[in-house]
Give the backbone structure.
Amino acid sequence: MGLCSGKKGVVFGIANDRSIAWQITKALHEQGAEMGFTHLPDRDPERPKNENKVRKLVEPIGAKFVIPCDVQKDEELDGSFARIAQEFGKIDFLLHSIAFAPPNDLTGPVYNVSRAGFQLAMDISAYSLIALAGRARPIMNAGGSILCLTYLGGEKVIPGYNLMGLCKSALESATEYLASEMGKDGIRVNALSAGPVRTISASGVGDFKKMLELYETFSPLRRNITEDEVGKAGMFLLSSMSSGITGETLHVDCGYHIMGGPPLDAIPGKAEG
Ligand code: 0WD
């Protein structure tokens, strides 16, 4: 018997085996959860690259369904939730692990962000949580859990995170308002603020290698998180083990977020202590 035995849920946002959503999926599967998956639709249906990448990962673990869903399209969201209700009836958890910003708007300074780029990034990276939560509410069991993925760049300035930082601020605020509104239905809504994990989305953010080095130097644990640690924490927040937690942004970053300055041993010539 696992922590999630008998639990059913949906994962939005697996792109490949590096995706954070895949790390969390593996941890949920190990604990007995039953899952369905959505993926970014393929531009060319004749070459279903996205679909094949996701199927290759999730079919061996008994995926109940794998469906394309562009979270920018209401009709695709409606169709996805109709299919989820048809397959599962009610669900116990939903993972939102989706973000995107146009590279030109993400890599430049915020003062240069285009109106269209801002709207697109906010739509995919923040509004989509609201769109999913509103559709999940009628088919979610009491005790259900919704989780999204955020990053410290939504709370503090992290050079290079830029426009995505504004999206994460909105995402984290949406997490709190949704938690306050859905709590009476027994539904929890939380955010997992992960330290840097080398994925496709991450490769679009500033000097990622530098960010990894920073975490190794500055974080209290003097290292980066592992994908497995994010997976386990995500499973925890989606399971009944976190039944008393809602509206929370849980930092899984080796403690980096508590630091207001570099540890002494990180400053050349300064011995610790
Ligand atoms: O260090 C990191 N990687 C961190 C990521 C640290 C802290 C937080 N996060 C967050 C990200 O901001 C995101 O919200 O975790 C979440 C997942 O990010 P990831 O696992 O790093 O990235 P990735 O594997 O790329 O998954 C994001 C996916 C997209 O993948 P690709 O590689 O195809 O861009 O979001 C999906 C897409 O699969 N996606 C969409 N899905 C549906 N509709 C859409 C869309 N319009 N746009 C992107």
Observations:
- DSSP finds eight helices and seven strands in the chain.
- Residues 13, 15, 18-21, 40, 69-72, 97-100, 124, 149-151, 194, 196-197, 199-202 surround 0WD (CB under 6 Å).
- The chain has a mean pLDDT of 95.
- The CA atoms of residues 154 and 165 lie 4 Å apart.
